[in-house]
C-alpha cells in the first residue's frame, strides 16, 4: 500500500513518508482496532476510551503514531514524531516501565507533552507502555480513560498483558512490511 492508503500528518517535516512504514501501519490498524474493542468490552474497563500505537522506525528514529479507537473503516491518520524532539519518550523507551498520569488536567490546556487531539479527547488519565521484543524497542501503546486515577494496579496488570499482544502485532506488521 502506498501513501494514498493512509492519511499522513507529518509533525516533524514535509518529506514523504517511507513506504515501508505505510505498509506496516496499514497491516497493523485492523488487528489493533479489534484488540481495542476486546479491551473495551471487558468488565471494569468501560472508562477506557482511547488506545493508540506509536510504532518506532529504527532507520529514521521516528515514531508513527495512530489511534486504534476509531472503527470508521478509514485508514488511520498517522502522525510522525521525531524521537529527538521528545526526550521524555526516549527516557520512557529505555525504562521498560509504564508511565501513568493520574490526572491529565494537571498539565493544563497547552501542554507540550500531549497532542491537541489528546488534550481534547475527554481523557482524564493515561498510561503509556513502552513495547520491546528481544531487546529491540518497538514503540508505545497509549491508553486513555475518561476518569482520573483509572490506572490502578489491577487495571495496569491487565493492560500490560494486552500491551504484549500489541507488541506481537507490531512485530508481525514489521515482518509483513519487510521493515
Quick structural overview:
By secondary structure, the protein is α+β, with helices and mostly antiparallel strands. The chain contains 4 helices and 7 strands.
Structural features, described:
The chain has a single domain, classed as Beta-Lactamase, CATH 3.30.450.40. The chain is 33% helix and 27% strand. It is built from four helices and seven strands, in the order βαβββαβαββα. 32% of the residues are buried. The N terminus is likely disordered.
Notable characteristics:
179 residues; alpha+beta; Beta-Lactamase; 4 helices; disordered N terminus
N-end to C-end Cα span: 14 Å
Instruction: Indicate how many domains the architecture comprises.
Output: 1
CATH class: Alpha Beta
One letter per element, helices H and strands E, the order comes to EHEEEHEHEEH
What is the averaged pLDDT score? 82
Spatial strand arrangement across the major sheet: 1-4-3-2-7-6-5
What is CATH's topology name? Beta-Lactamase
Number of helices: 4
CA gyration radius, whole angstroms: 15 Å
Main beta sheet: 7 strands, mixed
The backbone outline, from C-alpha atoms, is globular
Uncertain runs:
1-15
Beta-strand portion reads 25-35%
Q: Can you count the beta strands?
A: 7
* CATH architecture annotation: 2-Layer Sandwich
Helix % is 25-40%
CATH fourth-tier homologous superfamily: GAF domain
